[in-house]
Write a structure and sequence with these properties.
The protein is α+β, with helices and mostly antiparallel strands and 97 residues long. The protein is 39% helix and 34% strand. It has helices at residues 20-32, 50-67, 87-93, and strands at residues 3-13, 36-40, 43-49, 70-79. β2 and β3 form a beta hairpin.
Length: 97
């Protein structure tokens, strides 16, 4: 299995300024899968199998949309064939580990 690193952002709209309870639902879904999950203040970074990431992204987006009027989601995928692609390798490359 070749790993990919993906950045996910799911933004619930139409329920006021604070959306943390909806974002937490998405994060809980990410953690159910066999993925490395690193949450930060502006999004979540996932590491794992591409098919699994696509599946979890769709599930999280749909789950949040069940509770709000509108959701704007983005998924950015970094896939490499030349070397192992991990969150840790990427952070080491820029001197952050």
């Amino acid at each position: 299995m070749r790993k990919v690193v993906a950045e996910v952002s799911i933004i619930p709209l139409g329920k006021g300024a604070s959306v943390s309870k909806y974002v937490k639902k998405a994060i809980d879904i990410f953690k159910k899968y066999n993925l490395k999950v690193e949450t930060n203040a502006m999004g979540t970074v996932l590491e794992g199998d591409l098919d699994e990431i696509l599946k979890v992204f769709k599930e999280a987006h749909s789950t949040v949309l069940n509770d709000v009027d509108r959701v704007v989601s983005s998924l950015k995928i970094d896939e490499r064939k030349d070397k192992e692609n991990t969150i840790e390798r990427k952070l080491k490359a820029i001197g952050e580990l």
